[in-house]
Structures are given as C-alpha cells and as structure tokens.
Design a protein that fits this description.
Length: 67
Amino acid sequence: MLCRQTYEQDAKFICQGDPGDDMFILQEGSCDAWLQDASDGPRVLVKQYTHPGEYFGELCLLYFAAT
C-alpha cells in the first residue's frame, strides 16, 4: 500500500542495518543517504535525492521478494 509520510528536517527515517521493508519516493524536499562503517566512524555521503520522483529502498524489497 502506498502511504504518504512527512518527515521533519534532519529526521532519520531509515538507518543502516534496519530491515528493508519499505520503498521511498521523494515527493518534495530533499534527502541524503549516508554510509557509516562503524558506530563511531565518520559518515560518508553516498547519494543526494533532490528531484521529485526519485526513489530508494527498492533493492531491499527486490532482494526480500527473491528469497
């Protein structure tokens, strides 16, 4: 089911290691994807989502459906 969610600026709504059971489609605003190698290590910016219609999380859903 497709549901609209609104997040506050700087909100973390999915974190590395969380189960991948959601797909996100950017409707407005922007979103950054970060990778952190260790809990106390530096974060690395992986991708910025800035255009409506950009999506992420689909790879986890595809992997889950294939297993």
